[in-house]
Structures are given as C-alpha cells and as structure tokens.
Amino acid sequence: DRQVHEVQSYMGRLETSDKESVHLVENELQARIDNIFSNLERLEILSSKEPPNKRQNAKLRVDQLKYDVQHLQTALRNFQHRRYLREQQERQREELLARTFTANDSATTIPIDETLQYNESLQSAHRGMDDLIGSGTNILQGLRDQRVTLKGTHKKILDVANMLGLSNTVMRLIEKRAFQDKFLMLGGMAVTCVIMFLVVQYLT
Predict the structure, then answer these.
(1) Are 101 and 109 within 8 A, CB to CB?
(2) pTM, to two decimals
(3) Per-residue pLDDT tens digits for 79-116
(4) Is residue 69 within 8 Å of 5, Cβ to Cβ?
(5) Cβ(80)–Cβ(15) under 8 Å?
(6) Which of 24, 51, 171, 204 is deepest in the core (most CB within 10 A)?
(7) Where are the chain's structural domains?
(8) How many CA atoms lie within 13 A of 203 on its CB side?
(9) Phi-psi region of 109 (alpha: psi -120 to 50; beta: other; left: phi over 0)
C-alpha cells in the first residue's frame, strides 16, 4: 500500500519534467510498478494460505491493490502516448519550417491552402488515433479487470465447493466454464488489438 502511494506521488513529476529527464522518470515509474506487481503475486500466494476466516479479506485487499496498480499503469501508458504524439507533431512542424524554397523554382512551390488543409487533416487523424487508442486501452484494461474478477470468482467457487463437498463432476464443469471464459476474454483482447492495428495502419 505504501509503494502504491509512492508511485501516485511520483506520477506528478511527469508533467513537470523536461524533455531530457521525462524518459528517466517514466522508466523509474515503470520499474516501481513492475516491482509492485511482483510483490502482489507473492501476496496473493500468501493470502491463499491464510486461515479460512481471514482468507476472504486478504484476497479482497490484494485485488484492490491490483486494481490501483493497473490504474497507475494505464495512466502512465496514456501519458507516454500523448507525449509521443506531441513529439511527432513538433518534429513535423520543424521539418516543414526547415524546408527552403526559391522564388523561381516552381517545382518546390507549395500552395498555402493545400498545406494548411493537410496539416489540419493530419492533426484530426492524430486526435482520432489518440481517442481510438485511449478507448482501446480502456477496453483492454476492462478485460484485464474482468479476468482478475473471474479468477477471484473461480477461486471462491472452488473454496465453497470444497467446503460443501461437491462431486468431482461438478468441479470439472466449473473448471471447464472458467477455461471457456478465459478464451473468450483472450479472443476479445485479440480482436480489439487487431482493430486498433488496422485503424492505425489506415490512418497513417
């Protein structure tokens, strides 16, 4: 929990960092987030070994921490994507301003209206890509959250089943349903990624 709060505080440095140091801040944040994910995996194993009367609360606490860290990971990726688009637009503007044209060279004459129209279309495409990728990121995050929820629900069902002494046939049916849900989730993630890739290819 302390590490999550430290990452949340450290996120504020992203907006105030200059171009030279923002990459270092992003790398530091990613390293801290990866470390928290690793610790949460160990906590999840330990929580499963708690006594039955404490296991449920421990599992809920770990799931809440996972959700908080996944939210921080999404925020970091969104910031990196916005920074990439800003840097790309700045490079394009610099390249356009750096081009030189002679007064008598008709081959290098660029109609101002067409240039402005192209620039507006490019910015519109970038905004569309930004919105699309942001939506795709939210969809993927939702799918990951559903996976965590399904995994937790699956474990709870198995615990209840063990307590009630259900038959092996019922247990196998529960396992099969959880396996099918996992493939449906993975299929949805794959379709979303393919759609995002095709749209990005088309717009660029």
Answers:
(1) yes
(2) 0.44
(3) 889 888 988 888 888 888 887 655 554 544 455 555 66
(4) no
(5) no
(6) 171
(7) 1-98+152-203
(8) 19
(9) beta
